[in-house]
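W.,

You were right to be curious about this one. When I first looked at the sequence I had no strong expectations either way, so I just let the prediction run and decided to look at it fresh. Below is the sequence, 71 residues in total, followed by the output.
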Amino acid sequence: SLKTITDANENASAKEMLEDLKRSHQTIQKNIIAALEVAQQQKDEVTIGLLVDRLEYHEKTLWMLGAHLAE
């Protein structure tokens, strides 16, 4: 199955929604890292650049969500 992120619980609290969003970003991060390893093995510089940009976005979002949830 290509789907690795589950649908959100529409009855979840705001905190639960943020925790679910954080888990989703972590899943995406893991998938990007796996794809990045393949791109590096293939020496595909364009794909590497694209994946690094996306990885930076998801890492920043994870940091922001983590900081917000820690409050």
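Here's what jumped out at me. The chain has a mean pLDDT of 93. And, maybe more interesting for your project: The longest helix spans residues 14-41.

Coffee later to discuss?

I.
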